[in-house]
Amino acid sequence: MIRVVLIDDQPLLRSGFRALLDLEDDIDVVAEAADGEEGLALVRQHLPDVALIDIRMPVVDGIEATRRIAADPALAGVHVVILTNYGLDEYVFNALRAGAAGFLVKDIVPEDFLHAVRVAARGDALLAPSITRKLINRYVTQPLPAATGTGLKELTGREREAVALVAQGLSNDQIADHMAISSLTAKTHINRAMAKLDARDRAQLVVFAYESGLVVPRNS
């Protein structure tokens, strides 16, 4: 059963998302909140698999809520999905850097919304290749963080290759095919890279891959 905490300050949207999720046999909305501070308390109480968090809220916004979840070892199993009205913007990028697994625009069709919750619960990033290209081209332009180069040096050649393929939006099975290895071995390379880079999930691997220069953005 996928346990979800829903955090959004708009009652109508929140109730709509909950009604949709409650129809699914494998998803259980264990709590909901109208602001980030209340939501953080509920996340700590219920330890959900997925926290759906509105990016712009009173008291504590979605970026700060994501940052606090990512910084708490007790919440390592919580996958944050950002909800936004605005699509890809700097707020979303900052949320991804803070530790979000991905983001959803609120006008998403129900089938895609439910699929995204299940993807996030598995620990996969909600970043399609087209979104990744837009994100990188628009926002990964600042100087590299001091620790980035050091992190890259910690990776083996195969781990670097796996991270580069994650950044292209490939699944574990696709990475395995590309590298001519088993899916389990591909997953092992990715998990080891995440551990070495202190990355919560695949979304942070995507950001790292481009910021470190491991993958170079293409014009698109």
TrEMBL record:
Q: What Pfam families does the record tag this protein with?
A: GerE (PF00196), Response_reg (PF00072)
| GO biological process terms on file | phosphorelay signal transduction system; regulation of DNA-templated transcription
Q: Which GO terms describe its molecular function?
A: DNA binding
The source's superkingdom equals Bacteria
**Which residue range or ranges hold the Response regulatory domain?**
3-121
Which ranges carry the HTH luxR-type domain? 148-213
| UniProt KW keywords | DNA-binding, Phosphoprotein, Transcription, Transcription regulation
- Report the PANTHER family cross-referenced here: TRANSCRIPTIONAL REGULATORY PROTEIN NARL-RELATED, TWO-COMPONENT RESPONSE REGULATOR
Coiled-coil features, chain-numbered ranges: none
Residues with PTM 4-aspartylphosphate: D54
Q: Does the keyword Amino-acid biosynthesis apply?
A: no
Which InterPro entries does the UniProt entry name for this protein? CheY-like_superfamily, NreC/VraR/RcsB-like_REC, Sig_transdc_resp-reg_C-effctor, Sig_transdc_resp-reg_receiver, Tscrpt_reg_LuxR_C, WalR-like
Name under which the protein is recorded: DNA-binding NarL/FixJ family response regulator
